[in-house]
Structures are given as C-alpha cells and as structure tokens.
Amino acid sequence: MIVAVLITSSIHNQQKCFACLDSGFSSISSEEYIFRGVILTSLLDSFENKINRKKIIFAIVISGLLFGTAHFAHIVTQGFLISMVQVIQVSAMGCLLCALYVRTGSILMPMLVHFAIDYFIIVRVGTVQKKMPTDPISLIVEIVFPFTIYLVLAIVVLNPKNPSRWKLVEQLSSKT
C-alpha cells in the first residue's frame, strides 16, 4: 500500500516515477541483501552464542558505516562534498535499516523503508544532487537534520533497553 501511494503521488512526473521504481527494484533489493542480510547477519553470527546488547549495537554501527561508505562511489557524478554528506547521512540511515532488521527479523521492513526514503529523495533532488546549499544554516540542516533523525529513529526502533523484542537475535539464537 505504501508503494502504491508513493507511486501515484509522483505520477505527474513520469521520469521521476520511473527513476524511483528503478531504484526500488535494483539497488534497494541488492543493498538490503548485502548490508543487512549478509554483512549484519555475518557480524552477529560471528559472536557465537555470546550475543549481547553492545555487540549487536556494534554490528549495527559497522554495517551502517559500511553502507554509508559504499555510497562514496557517487563521487564520480556528485563531487566530493556532496558525496561526503551522503556518506554521513546514509551511514545513519544504514543504522536505522539495521535496527529495523534486528527488531523485526525480516528484510522486508528495511526494504520498504529504504524504498520510501529513496523515493522522497529522488522526488526532491532527482537521482544526482549537483550542488549543496551555500549558507551555513541550510548546510547544517542538510547534514545534521537527516543524520539525527535517522539515529533517533534507529534507537527508538531498536529499543535497546528491551532486547527481548529483537526478532533477528531470536532467529539466530534458535539456529545454534
């Protein structure tokens, strides 16, 4: 339903609608599989029955940082400054997506949230951001606001004081 609402809300701009769909079906599914399904799960598996809250948060942060760093490849089309801002923002977004995966135990929820975030970014700035705002307030808002929102949401979703609700940990623990 979320996908249908997002698609119909941008139907007036067919080019952006197709860019959103292309992003959704190609990069998002592979990114979620690699960074949540493989990297995060492998990090958690490496703890061998000694999974605790600190190790899970460590795995989430590492996976998020790797996810953000992978987006530095956009330097070719966006330039250095915009790519660095994207790495910072996407690292925090990666932590949110990891938190969703740990909490729900399903890769589907991070995929849907990733699609929604990418959708709104593509509608707002297109597939390639060419320039950054120059005034200091806009620059801070552009960098700090999304980063903070993603991290706060990750903490709220994860609810670190209640790890008994982490479905992925239950699933991994039951495998051993």
Question: SSE layout and pairings?
Answer:
Layout: H1 2-9, H2 14-45, H3 53-70, H4 75-78, H5 80-104, H6 108-125, H7 136-158, H8 167-175
Structure description:
GO terms for molecular function: endopeptidase activity. This is CAAX prenyl protease 2/Lysostaphin resistance protein A-like domain-containing protein. This protein has one domain (13-168). With 176 residues, the chain is mainly α. The protein has helices at residues 2-9, 14-45, 53-70, 75-78, 80-104, 108-125, 136-158, 167-175. The radius of gyration is 17 Å and the shape is globular.
What's this model, at a glance?
The protein is 78% helix and 0% strand. The protein is mainly α.
Give a quick set of tags describing it.
176 residues; mainly alpha; membrane; transmembrane helix; Rce1/LyrA-like_dom; endopeptidase activity
Question: What overall geometry do the principal axes of the alpha carbons give?
Answer: globular
Instruction: Tell me the total number of β-strands.
Output: 0
Strand content: under 5%
Mean pLDDT: 81
Integer-rounded radius of gyration: 17 Å
State the oligomer: single chain
Helix content: over 70%
Number of helices: 8
Largest beta-sheet characterization: none
The ordered H/E elements are HHHHHHHH
Instruction: Please tell me the total number of domains.
Output: 1
How far from one another are the termini? 36 Å
Question: Would you identify the regions where 5 or more consecutive residues have pLDDT less than 50?
Answer: none
User: What structural class is derived from the secondary structure elements?
Assistant: mainly alpha
